[in-house]
Structures are given as structure tokens and as C-alpha cells.
Specification:
Layout lengths: L2 E7 L17 E5 L12 E4 L3 H10 L4 E5 L2 H10 L7 H20 L5 E10 L5 E3 L4 H7 L7 E8 L2 E5 L19 E3 L2 H12 L3
Parallel strand pairs: 1-5, 1-7, 2-3, 2-4, 4-5
Antiparallel strand pairs: 5-6, 7-8, 8-9
Length: about 200
């Protein structure tokens, strides 16, 4: 199984920018929203929101690390395409498509790959900040964060862009014991990837 990691946060808090330190051949990016990256990059970037194309790209990628940016729009765009469709079937389909992608990454991709699901955040009725989806089936039945051992959240304080590594009691952030000693680390996905690979003994 691939090591999958979730990173969520508000727009403009550094999710995409955190990829800036990867070099050519180290990372492949699947750009769901088809928007330009906020920095010049030498690594491969493909634009698609089609689930089957995404699976095929992940399977064929020669890069050790893969980012799906912005995974939230896989759900949002599917919802908008079917906005005029009545009934609950569309919500079932959205949940199933996203769940199938998670299962594909977990069970069909080699364990020397790291895959990052980046997405926006939202605040639930109970005040907890979590990965943004559409509909209660994904939130309450699938519970996307439950499939990830590591969930990081972006943060901006006094102009400093960071990742939050441990749960505050008001979010769904989590990381394995000892992977990150600090509650706040620099906004650098390459450094995060190095820490994950070191922790699990992946070259």
C-alpha cells in the first residue's frame, strides 16, 4: 500500500506552495482545478478531474511522490456537474467515487510511493475544522480522514506559513507518535515527505 497523507487548509494558506522544493523527477502533480502553480516548477504536472485518468496517472507515474491538488474539487466539481439532478443518488456516487480512489491508492499502489491529498477546509457545526466535502455521506459514512494516518493543516501566523502536525481539539489533524516533535513545522512538503519516508523506512 502507498503511504497516503492528507493536507487541508483555507485557500491561500500555502498548500500548493508547499511543493516548491521538490526537484524534477521527485514529484508528479495531478492538478484537479487546472490552475497554474504559484511558483516555477520542474516536476511533472497533469490537469484532470477524471477519476479513471487520475488512477491511471498514479499507476504509471515514475515519481516517488504524487500530489492530488486540489482533491476537494473532485467532489465539488462532480456535485456542480450534477446540480440539476434530483434525489440522493448523486451523493452516493460522489462518495463512492472518492472512496474508490482512496482504496485504489491504499491497496493497488506499491508501498514505496507517497501520495498527498490536498484540499480545502471547512468548519463543522461542532466547531471542528476538517477536510471539506459535499454532503453527510462523505463526512459521516466515509469519514475521509479516517483512512489517513497523517493529516496536516496549513496555518498562517504573522506572515509565517506553516503546517500544524498535532490535534488542537478543534480539528482532525494527526500524525504518528514521534514523526514530528514540533506542533508547528515549516510549510515544506519536501521536508514532510522526507520525514514520512524516514519514519517508515522508505527510500
Amino acid at each position: 500500500m502507498a503511504i497516503i497523507t492528507m493536507i487541508y487548509g483555507q485557500s491561500g494558506t500555502g498548500k500548493s506552495t508547499s511543493m516548491r522544493n521538490f526537484q524534477k523527477g521527485e514529484l508528479s502533480v495531478i492538478n484537479v482545478s487546472n490552475k497554474p502553480l504559484p511558483f516555477k516548477a520542474e516536476f511533472a504536472v497533469a490537469n484532470t478531474q477524471d477519476y479513471e485518468q487520475i488512477k491511471e496517472m498514479i499507476k504509471k507515474s515514475s515519481s516517488p511522490s504524487i500530489v492530488i491538488d486540489d482533491a476537494t474539487y473532485l467532489i465539488v466539481n462532480e456535485y456542480m456537474r450534477n446540480a440539476k439532478t434530483t434525489g440522493f443518488q448523486k451523493f452516493t456516487d460522489m462518495a463512492l467515487n472518492f472512496w474508490n480512489l482512496l482504496q485504489f491508492c491504499i491497496y493497488e499502489i506499491p508501498n514505496d510511493k507517497t501520495i498527498y491529498f490536498m484540499g480545502h477546509s471547512e468548519t463543522a457545526e461542532d466547531g471542528r475544522e476538517h477536510f471539506k466535502t459535499i454532503g453527510k455521506m462523505l463526512d459521516n459514512t466515509v469519514v475521509p480522514e479516517g483512512y489517513f494516518t497523517t493529516v496536516l493543516k496549513t496555518s498562517v501566523q504573522d506572515g509565517q506559513y506553516s503546517f500544524i502536525t498535532h490535534n488542537t481539539g478543534f480539528d482532525t489533524v494527526k500524525s504518528p507518535i514521534g514523526m514530528f516533535t514540533e506542533d508547528v513545522i515549516p510549510n515544506d512538503l519536501k521536508a514532510v515527505d522526507t520525514a514520512i519516508r524516514s519514519y517508515y523506512g522508505i527510500k
